[in-house]
Amino acid sequence: MTARIGVVTFPGSLDDRDTQRAIRVAGAEPVALWHKDKDLKQVDAVVLPGGFSYGDYLRAGAISRFSPVMESVIEQARAGLPVLGICNGFQILTEAHLLPGGMLGNDHLHFICRDQKLRVENADTAWTSDYEQGQEIHIPLKNMDGRYVADRYTLDKLEAEGLVAFRYLAHGEADDGYGNPNGSLNDIAGITNEAGNVVGLMPHPEHAVEPLIGTGRTDGLPFFTSILKKLVNA
Amino acid sequence: MSRTPLDTVEHATATPDVELPWAELGLKKDEYERVVEILGRRPTGAELAMYSVMWSEHCSYKSSKVHLRQFGEKAPENDALLVGIGENAGVVDVGQGYAVTFKVESHNHPSYVEPYQGAATGVGGIVRDIIAMGARPVAVVDPLRFGAADHPDTKRVLPGVVAGIGGYGNCLGLPNIGGEVVFDPCYQGNPLVNAGCIGVMRHEDIHLAKASGAGNKVILYGARTGGDGIGGASILASETFDDAKPSKRPAVQVGDPFQEKLLIECTLEAFREKLVVGIQDLGAAGLSCATSELASNGSGGMRVTLDDVPLRDSTLSPEEILMSESQERMCAVVEPEKVDRFLEICEKWDVIATVIGEVTDGDRLEIFWHGGKIVDVDPRTVAHEGPTYERPYARPEWQDALQADDAGKLPRPQTADELRDQVLKLVASPNQASKKWITSQYDHFVQGNTVLAQPEDSGMIRIDEETGLGVALATDGNGRYTKLDPYTGAQLALAEAYRNVATTGAKPLAVSDCLNFGSPEDPAVMWQFAEAVRGLADGCRRLGTPVTGGNVSLYNQTGEAAIHPTPVVAVLGVIDDVARRTPVAFQEEGQLLYLLGDTREEFGGSAWSQVVHDHLGGLPPKVDLERERLLAEILIAASRDGMIDSAHDLSDGGLIQAVVESALLGGKGARLVVPDGLDAFTFLFSESAGRAVVAVPRSEEVRFNDMCGARGLPATRIGVVDGDAVELQGEFALPLAQLRTAHDETIPALLA
């Protein structure tokens, strides 16, 4: 058997088809979900893909968070449904308060697209179990509003409880100048909730699943194999 | 507030002596008289608006079309061409049932006035052209030209243009895979912002801008119509009607990429359900253009009720509505029984859609406003029968002196140290330096099919996941070469783009162009234009790659000073399996470097002459299109059969520029030896055309040499991939770290 993983399309979603492909490449079955439809079609997990839903009007993710599909996603995520938010999807998850903190504009004020080095800080979530703790991986990054911020209390809690899932390498650590790309606090690239079923990150694992395409690396594939194994073995 | 009566056809007939502001709208006296002759009466205000905008240089190609005809007349026999010049974009058969459409357009003037919106709406416009052919857009490219890199205004224009391209293209989900950035003082005040787009469809999905079938409905969908980009129509409105309204509006349109993204998805869904008979995007000249072109390309006429157009500003006059260039709008012709389903799809995507008229069985385009008929014209006279000018042209008197000022006479480096310093200076110069600061502001990963993106020789996109079928696109243009010799310069641009496609392993198929020139009213500029078009048309015939469409941008001129003539040529290629593509980066130490082609002492217009001597003179490199063809065949065969692991075309900056780029991208150095018969300087800096440098695995050396020998292509072993420096034996060694600093830091230092 395989797992059915839903991918939500919001108006302005861009990486929905790429995410469906990544799910397919990992061996799972992608299921298209529509933002106006509350029905999650009984999927085993959901990915909120990247893009500029609602044109980033108001604030990235702020409008999508109120779409009918998100009512179901929020409810079921709280009940344990695995949910991954990539880039705009991460922004939507923070707007929906499924994950703490939020994203501001990059400190250099430019859109940035590059192959980004990350360290896996928590390999125990539903979406990261196929990585090694501390593993360094390259995942494409592309965003305008990618600077993770949270209040001191939240940051302390994230750090104390191991909820930082991915970290950019700090500026002295990255030999090639590919460290923290945007001024994210604590070099945070992605986080998880306490239960480990909801994960969000700014870089795009779905763009690193085929050896020939994009950066030519497949470092993003374990996101999708992690969840597949978890669901199939469950 | 008083209103003069509505200027209907009836009113115009009854008041033949009313003076209309035709001159302010840009019409010449004889052009206005021609309009009166066509109509047999004075035009109404609305008709005048339509004729003036459709007969503008931008829409009618009135100065250029006598020359552009050569692209058709000299077109090579080519089975791959499915749709040629004249439609929104050309369409090429790339095999396996797929068709590809591509085009390059300019948005030069708006981008100088308002860099962000000018560049953003340039992307939006070209993307709508591609959708209008029935294709899903899959990638964009942006060939750009700016004034001197260190000029203060460049710091205003360039960051805005780059942010605009990124802001719009990134938000549409289109990977940006290629283009160029060139600096030259000649573009100060006249930056060139060209934008290209590739779209993919199945053969059976090709759509055309055509309104056929009486009774079919004309549906306007997308954004509401506002007062932006109206330009001259405001004059007409304020003179004809009252002046108590917000008439001062921005001449540059404002883009909303989110609306365009919805427009793409909604249009493609309507195509999939076969709901569309004909389609046209609204770009320059807005509704005037869309209605007159749809009607004139179809079999019948068209009746439009302008009151039904959804407006952003209810005070707009009918003339303004007809001329508005509000972005993100399209016009579809739909059979009556399919209208409901079409509107449903629009609603699904939250896109406003309105039936504004229908196709009639007459041959007139009739437009109504408040019950009165304000336009009654033969649409062909608006869309296709604009004026044609045989502008005088003459070879400028300074051309001889320019060509006599031979770059071969410039002082050359005398010592190894000088040679080394000039290499460093070259790779750090703004034109040769890394453009990563710019291209990293563009998304090149989205859609998950990008095989190659800048700084590769051409961008490459996979179009079939099962078979690996892909397309490649390269754009090139060298204003310096073209200034020295427009005929040769245009062919060099073509040759370079053709070579760049072949270097990545793809077979060149077809050409689009964006011809950027100064004022056509200057005979010297007109001569440059005529020569460049003749060169390009002859070159395309020789290479077997037809021109499928393109764009002309004239008046890139401030006062007497025109830009360098800058034809930008885009070549589209196809590759059966993208797994066979050849990248620029050195892959493995120990591989052998071969220089393909002949190297001559050619420095006219070269990067070296510009960087070291600030010189432009002499003749550009010679073009040998037969040689280009042979080189391309060898590169494609070597890629297909796994004989080379990296390849880079040689163009501006010569061999050393290419080797440094391959080394930096691969993180591997090279040891070079000057081949017999050449001096070190010529070896490094000459810009002879028809050349590439390739890295051959040792196991493939014999086979590769045999192939080149048998086909008669000179292949010279010039060194090996090795170490962490670029070394010219017996002369100098430059560590990669030092080269990287020189190459990477120039642009951020100037512009960040």
TrEMBL record, chain A:
Catalysed transformations (reactions): N(2)-formyl-N(1)-(5-phospho-beta-D-ribosyl)glycinamide + L-glutamine + ATP + H2O = 2-formamido-N(1)-(5-O-phospho-beta-D-ribosyl)acetamidine + L-glutamate + ADP + phosphate + H(+); L-glutamine + H2O = L-glutamate + NH4(+)
Compartments (UniProt record): Cytoplasm
Active site per the UniProt annotation: C87, H204, E206
Predominant localisation class: cytoplasm
Enzyme Commission code(s) on record: 6.3.5.3, 3.5.1.2
Pfam family, one: GATase_5
Pathway: Purine metabolism; IMP biosynthesis via de novo pathway; 5-amino-1-(5-phospho-D-ribosyl)imidazole from N(2)-formyl-N(1)-(5-phospho-D-ribosyl)glycinamide: step 1/2
Source superkingdom: Bacteria
Keywords: ATP-binding, Cytoplasm, Glutamine amidotransferase, Hydrolase, Ligase, Nucleotide-binding, Purine biosynthesis
Annotated InterPro entries: Class_I_gatase-like, PRibForGlyAmidine_synth_PurQ
Function, as annotated: Part of the phosphoribosylformylglycinamidine synthase complex involved in the purines biosynthetic pathway. Catalyzes the ATP-dependent conversion of formylglycinamide ribonucleotide (FGAR) and glutamine to yield formylglycinamidine ribonucleotide (FGAM) and glutamate. The FGAM synthase complex is composed of three subunits. PurQ produces an ammonia molecule by converting glutamine to glutamate. PurL transfers the ammonia molecule to FGAR to form FGAM in an ATP-dependent manner.
NCBIfam families: FGAM_synth_I (TIGR01737), PRK03619.1 (NF002957)
Oligomer status and interactors: Part of the FGAM synthase complex composed of 1 PurL, 1 PurQ and 2 PurS subunits.
Name by which UniProt lists this protein: Phosphoribosylformylglycinamidine synthase subunit PurQ
From TrEMBL, chain B:
Residues given in the record as ATP binding sites: Y61, K103, D513, G550
Keyword field: ATP-binding, Cytoplasm, Ligase, Magnesium, Metal-binding, Nucleotide-binding, Purine biosynthesis
UniProt feature coiled coil, ranges: none
Record Pfam families: AIRS, AIRS_C, FGAR-AT_linker
Subcellular compartments: Cytoplasm
PurM-like N-terminal domain residues: 86-201, 456-575
Domain of life: Bacteria
Active-site residues, Swiss-Prot/TrEMBL: H58, H107
Catalytic activity line of the entry: N(2)-formyl-N(1)-(5-phospho-beta-D-ribosyl)glycinamide + L-glutamine + ATP + H2O = 2-formamido-N(1)-(5-O-phospho-beta-D-ribosyl)acetamidine + L-glutamate + ADP + phosphate + H(+)
Class in the EC hierarchy, top level: ligase
Pathway entry: Purine metabolism; IMP biosynthesis via de novo pathway; 5-amino-1-(5-phospho-D-ribosyl)imidazole from N(2)-formyl-N(1)-(5-phospho-D-ribosyl)glycinamide: step 1/2
Ranges for domain PurM-like C-terminal: 214-369, 588-724
Keyword ATP-binding: yes
Binding site for Mg(2+) 2: D129, D281
Spans through the membrane: none
Residues involved in substrate binding: S106, H107, N108, H109, R128, Q253, E325, S326, Q327, S553
InterPro entries from the UniProt entry: PRibForGlyAmidine_synth_PurL, PurL_linker, PurM-like_C_dom, PurM-like_C_sf, PurM-like_N, PurM-like_N_sf
GO molecular function: phosphoribosylformylglycinamidine synthase activity
Record: residues binding Mg(2+) 1: E105, N551
Enzyme Commission (EC) number: 6.3.5.3
Domain Phosphoribosylformylglycinamidine synthase linker residues, every copy: 24-62
Its biological purpose: Part of the phosphoribosylformylglycinamidine synthase complex involved in the purines biosynthetic pathway. Catalyzes the ATP-dependent conversion of formylglycinamide ribonucleotide (FGAR) and glutamine to yield formylglycinamidine ribonucleotide (FGAM) and glutamate. The FGAM synthase complex is composed of three subunits. PurQ produces an ammonia molecule by converting glutamine to glutamate. PurL transfers the ammonia molecule to FGAR to form FGAM in an ATP-dependent manner.
Sequence similarity: Belongs to the FGAMS family.
NCBIfam families linked to this entry: FGAM_synth_II, PRK01213.1
Subunit annotation: Monomer. Part of the FGAM synthase complex composed of 1 PurL, 1 PurQ and 2 PurS subunits.
Protein name: Phosphoribosylformylglycinamidine synthase subunit PurL
